[in-house]
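Tokenise the fold.
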Amino acid sequence: MLKQQFLADYLEHIIPVPFLLSSNGEVTQLGKEPPRFTVTIKNEIDKKALLASTSLALGEAYMRGDLEVDRDLFEVLDTFLGGMDKFTTNHSLLRRLLYTSSSKKNQAKEVTSHYDIGNDFYALWLDETMSYSCGYFKSENDTLREAQIQKVDHILEKLQLKQGMTLLDIGCGWGFLLKRAVQKYGVIGVGITLSKEQAKKAREDIQREGLEEKISIQLMDYRDLKSSRWRFDRVVSVGMLEHVGRENYPLFLKCVKSVLNPSGLFLLHYISALKEHPGDAFIKKYIFPGGMVPSLREIIHLMSEEQFYILDVESLRRHYSKTLLCWRENFLAHREEIIKMQGIEFTRMWELYLTACAATFKNGVIDLHQILISNGINNEIPMTRVV
């Protein structure tokens, strides 16, 4: 009875709406209004685990099937993930999980653990462009593919590309942005990534489309840019800064500076936060080992050190929530295939990841920013905002 009461009190503290808790054959109503949903605990959740990390304990319980809800998972998570400041996180106990090494060797291992799961896996639920970042929805009826093409065009228009320019994509994924830039603007592109799976598919696609003279994909750490002797008119980085680590943000910007021509433009697209935070324990253990979400203010603060001039800052937060819900819809449509491919715990884990991220973006726990920057003064680009 004591454990049942502790769990009821604990969940009532973090979930601000009325709900039913079913555990050990007992049903308890939390809140006085009609319950919105029922949380069923099939196997006991360890009290120590909850006090160490709310997200890790509840996330692992959901993965195992020890915790179920009787409503759509997004509908449930949307009611309380906006209040994640109420979650418990024992930073001392979880220090090795929350603060991992930012060495080249370790970060390569962490990045590939996520992106090298397999191209076949990602192809099941991403769109045809294989874009694994926030889309840009110009209307409610846009398809995911349309939104991803519009996102890339949105970025390329901001970069003011012209025929013959050189473009570097740091963290190029499967290469769609570079292919689009070459085909639409006639630039010469180089992409770098740590993912062997992404590089393999990107190179195959580039060769099949006859673009190998225009685009080069390199397996390369951003830290090696400083010794590359490369120079580019434009640099873009989409969804890669989250893997750099807080202590390496100044170094990352120095590396960009080292390859960007004077007056060149740099577009930084990344998941951001209001305040500096070490990250979520569940996400860091199971989804993005070593991942770190920078705050907007800390990145902006560092720009002046490299004589980077900020030209434009745009939030795409709600676009990312919608993108994630599209991915989740695709993911669930192929759920049985993914179970056969990866197993039930993995499938439940990824469903929770996609759904929880959609809810946290919707509730402003995290944001998505695009920052357009010039390397020193650039008086040649239009005085008014293009897009």
User: Anything to note?
Assistant: Residues 115 and 195 are 6 Å apart (CA to CA). The radius of gyration is 22 Å. Residues 344-362 form the longest helix (19 residues).
